[in-house]
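Example record

The entry below shows one chain as it appears in the dataset: sequence first, then structure tokens.
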Amino acid sequence: MTDNLSQQQIAEYIEAFDLFDTEGQGSLPLEKVPHVLQALGLVPNEYNIQSLQQSKLEEGETSIDCMGFLHLMATSRTEAAAREATVRARWEMLDAALATLDRTDTGIIQCSDLKRVMKDVLKGEDLESFLLEADKDGIGKVSYKELVGVLMQGV
């Protein structure tokens, strides 16, 4: 399962693993995994860490060996690449959809057009709040590139 890791990545991950395997046992307690990830410059996803710990505990294990760690890294890299591709595709679709509202081909959308399109998605205060966030300067126009950024927050 480490097929999608380069030799350089494998070496880097093994080195980081070994730094935390201070006793040279070839395994790490599960609670050290987030620290190894941080040492690699990664931000551990709390849900994934808890899921890993839960699955290992269900198997009766309280540690992870180097191959298990490499498998974890390969899996997480694959998942991250898939998430990135999904976000990129969503951004491109959203960008293309908003471009159709740009009547003058200037990258600007009239708030009235945006309100008409969004009224079925957002209601009342949510719609007004969205429009206020989108039209920060209050001129009734929105850059659709900036709007895509607002819409993609938290994705």
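Notes for this example: The mean pLDDT is 83. Helices lie at 7-20, 33-39, 46-58, 66-99, 111-118, 124-134, 144-152.
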